[in-house]
Design a protein that fits this description.
CATH class: Alpha Beta
Helix content: 10-25%
Shape: elongated
Number of strands: 7
CATH topology: STM4215-like
Number of domains: 1
Radius of gyration: 16 Å
């Protein structure tokens, strides 16, 4: 199992936002990134000698400022960083692939306070590391 808090902590290493959240964005501070579960992936299990992997569906909200241009640029900065990663580890889970689901961050306009937001959706394909 890979947890949203682990993905949030990994995203912090990109040093893009000032605030990072899972679940809800408490206080809705500007220049924030929120990590959310995006539905459920089908259960994948090992059959015979074939290796097993899991899929974690993730949605990342970029809650930025009241400036649409700044928000778009911040979202694309994160998108390009995600697009550039290959296999890596998050807390003893080996990420085989990060599959972006859209060709660019999705513009979801503004919240009720006029702060622009964008969303990036992706799937993390991963295996559990074993110390064998």
């Amino acid at each position: 199992m890979i947890y949203l808090s682990e993905i949030r902590d990994w995203l912090k290493t990109f040093d893009i936002a000032e605030n990072y959240y899972i679940g809800t964005m408490n206080g809705r501070k500007d220049k924030s990134i929120g990590v959310y579960q995006r539905g459920n992936a089908p259960l994948r299990e090992c059959i015979g000698m074939l290796s097993s992997y899991q899929v974690k569906p993730v949605s990342v909200k970029i809650h930025w400022t009241k400036n649409a241009d700044e928000t778009e640029k911040a979202a694309y900065q994160l998108y390009e960083r995600l697009k550039a990663v290959s296999s890596f580890d998050i807390n003893n889970k080996h990420i085989i692939m990060l599959k972006l689901l859209h060709s660019e961050p999705i513009d979801i306009l503004t919240d009720e306070l006029g702060v622009y937001e964008r969303v990036i959706e992706f799937d993390l394909y991963y295996t559990e590391r074993t110390d064998e």
